[in-house]
Amino acid sequence: MRTSYLKKYIISSYVLVWVLIIFVAGTASLVFDAPPVIMWIIRNLIAWSPTYLLFLGWKHFRPNETRIAFIKRCFSGKVELLPLLFSFTLTFGISLLALFIFSIIQGKPMFSYFNLGTTALPLSIFLSFTSGPTGEELGWRGFMREEFNKKYGFLKSSIFQGLVWCFWHTLLWIVDSEFTDLRAIPYVISNIVVITSITVLMNIFLERYNNLLYSVLLHFGFNIIYVFLYADIGFFVILTVLYLIITPIAVWIRNSFLKKNISEIY
Questions:
Q1: Which domain holds residue 219?
Q2: Beta strands in 46-122 (DSSP E)
Q3: pTM recorded for the entire structure
Q4: SS3 108
Q5: Residue 210 and residue 228: Cα distance in Å, rounded?
Q6: Would you say 134 and 216 are in contact if contact means Cβ atoms under 8 Å apart?
Q7: Which residues, including other chains, have CB under 8 Å from residue 75's CB and lie 6 or more apart?
Q8: How far is the C-alpha of 3 from the C-alpha of 23, rounded, in Å?
Q9: Torsion sign (Cα): 187, 192, 195, 197
Q10: In-domain check, residue 13
């Protein structure tokens, strides 16, 4: 497949999500004053746009493969319970650690930053899981990861993927964030660092197991806490620092295992 098709996919995914946010979500919110649950469902439908685009334009992006063959390959790798649980626990645990440190600095109980809201807990979990974690992975970690990996090595490919995924959220930083003053600067920096770092962590799992279930749970582990979390910008600064520490360690461990395996072969 030619790289130009990957560029078209990336550009089209940006255009599509911006159009959906402005005309669908914007109309539902500003014109019809849709209730929070309805807006959540609309956001979920929008989160699936990378997958809509991929399958609707399939003949342009993967003319020599069927959709079914692609999906089977994306979930063909082995599934091991402990690594699968760890994929969720990793991102969920990093967020909890950041919140724990933030709560100590602020001198407040850790759970004072959580608010269950008005939506039933099971529905909140379901809507969170059926948003980005299940909606985006076939497009980003399924299609886009494979295409970047054909041209670049692990780390460079992961960073490029992370930046594409990160800036795909740009419009949401404007319309769906409470940080509209100078706090927007560290918030945007945090998004860039954290989302790119998560992509690197996802690709470490996918390189070993080749099954999108790992990236789905890792994505879900990151997202679920923000359904209930109400914290100031300091939390995101701490989160950024933690990912800047943990991600290089994870890459070092990955490289060490890779070198060990190569040395055992030869």
A1: 78-265
A2: none
A3: 0.94
A4: coil
A5: 31
A6: yes
A7: 211, 212, 213
A8: 30
A9: negative
A10: no
Half-sphere exposure of 213 (CA within 13 A, CB side): 16
91-139: pLDDT as tens digits: 999 999 999 999 999 999 998 999 887 678 899 999 999 999 999 999 9
Any domain includes 142: yes
Looking at residue 47, its pLDDT comes to: 95
Which residue is associated with the tokens 């809507």? 127
Q: Report the distance separating Cα 123 and Cα 222, nearest Å.
A: 18
Measured distance CA(151)–CA(147) in Å, rounded: 7
What the block records as the tokens of 73 is 């390959």
CA torsion, ordered 115, 118, 123, 124, to nearest 10 deg: -30
The answer to which of 75-79, 89-93, 100-104, 262-266 has the lowest mean pLDDT is 262-266
Q: Return the percentage of the chain with pLDDT > 70, whole number.
A: 96
Alpha carbons 262 and 119: distance in angstroms, whole number: 51
Three-state DSSP at 101 gives helix
In a domain, 23, yes or no: no
Domain-located, residue 209: yes
Dump the DSSP string for the chain: --HHHHHHHHHHHHHHHHHIIIIIIHIIIIIS---HHHHHHHHHHHHTHHHHHHHHTHHHH-TTS-HHHHHHHHT-S---HHHHHHHHHHHHHHHHHHHHHHHHHHTS-GGGGB---SS-HHHHHHHHHTTHHHHTHIIIIIIIHHHHHTTS-HHHHHHHHHHHHHHTTHHHHHHS-S--STTHHHHHHHHHHHHHHHHHHHHHHHHHH--HHHHHHHHHHHHGGGGTB---HHHHHHHHHHHHHHHHHHHHHHHHHHHHHHHHH-
Structure tokens at 214: 């790992």
